[in-house]
Specification:
With 315 residues, the protein is an alpha+beta fold. It is built from seven helices and 16 strands. The protein is globular and about 50 Å long. The structure holds fe (ii) ion. The site of fe (ii) ion has 4 residues, from loops.
Length: 315
């Protein structure tokens, strides 16, 4: 039988996570890892194994990590790389990087497809998300595999994508992507999320720095494509994005309190499904610093704008 575990061939026989504890959730993305208690004190080889599984499955899940508080979550996340706060929202008090998404507060529902923080050049490599308050029903998160999406493109569209560059901005068309935005969401977006406006040019196809794969780099922060008028760019965006959100490239996670999800932010997009009504939902994200993307021609991403937002304009 052909092995689908491309990483496993280099794994020593003394691996500390037995394959029976890696429960795949679909062919292309997602695995639950069982019988691991996450902490900042895990042995190096176990951390490396978790990172290898992350590269292989794009998103990995751990149930029952209720022992982790903010500090414990960050101590574990720090084993995967340097922590980085959100560039405009910052980190919650007493933490280096933790971003809280609280459904009861503005900006707390990340309900459109995106890769985190792509409006800066060196956007995060990975994120560690913890379920803190989980609704009785709804509120799942869906991740997609952007390397598989690239592979699915017919060759002429791969070549087109290889050459395209897109401008990503946090001052994107928020209203166009959110049908359920509240006044608090809009206020948070206007006053906090876009307090400093960024514009960054990224290749539409990023070469993954650890696996060498080509991945599609799009999501809701895309404002326009370089050298293409906006109306045409929207059609291209919708076309490429449709390969990313194709059901067979996705995995859907039903949260429980104490769950941890870790995703490779360079090979995925995600969306938090906004289907839990007025129930309360809080998740907290520790974020791991990334490096500047490189396109297939070797050119690197560039931030063109980083400016405090002009205020006081008449509406
Ligand atoms: Fe996100």
């Amino acid at each position: 039988m052909a092995s689908v575990h491309s990483v496993s061939s280099s794994t020593p026989p003394s691996r500390s996570i037995p394959s029976s504890d890696v429960v795949r959730l679909s062919a292309r993305i997602g695995a639950e890892i069982r019988n691991v208690r996450l902490s900042g004190d895990l042995p190096n080889d176990l951390v490396k194994e978790i990172n290898d599984l992350l590269l292989q499955h794009r998103v990995v899940f751990f149930r029952g990590q209720d022992h982790l508080d903010d500090a414990g979550q960050e101590r574990f996340a720090k084993r995967l790389g340097d922590l980085v706060p959100h560039p405009t929202v910052g980190a919650i008090k007493g933490t280096a990087s933790i971003l809280e998404l609280d459904s009861a507060r503005g900006g707390g529902r990340a309900d459109s497809w995106h890769t985190d923080v792509t409006f800066v050049d060196a956007y995060p490599r990975a994120a560690v998300l913890r379920g803190v308050v989980i609704p009785e029903f709804g509120g799942d998160t869906i991740w997609s595999n952007t390397a598989a999406a690239y592979q699915d493109l017919p060759a002429p569209l791969q070549r087109l994508a290889d050459e395209l560059w897109a401008v990503h901005s946090n001052a994107y068309d928020y209203a166009a992507t959110r049908s359920r935005a509240t006044d608090a969401d809009r206020k948070h977006f206007d006053e906090v999320f876009t307090g400093t406006v960024y514009e960054t040019e990224h290749p539409v196809v990023r070469v993954h720095p650890e696996t060498g794969e080509r991945t599609l780099l799009l999501g809701h922060f895309v404002q326009r494509f370089a050298g293409i008028r906006k109306a045409d760019g929207q059609k291209l965006f919708d076309l490429f994005q449709s390969y990313i959100t194709a059901p067979e490239n996705t995995v859907r996670w039903r949260w429980k309190t104490g769950d941890i999800a870790i995703w490779d932010n360079r090979a995925t997009q995600h969306i938090a499904v906004n289907d839990y009504g007025d129930q309360h939902r809080i998740v907290r994200r520790a974020t791991i610093d990334g490096d500047v993307p490189v396109g297939v021609d070797g050119r690197t991403s560039v931030t063109r704008v980083k400016a405090p937002k002009a205020v006081g304009r008449a509406a």
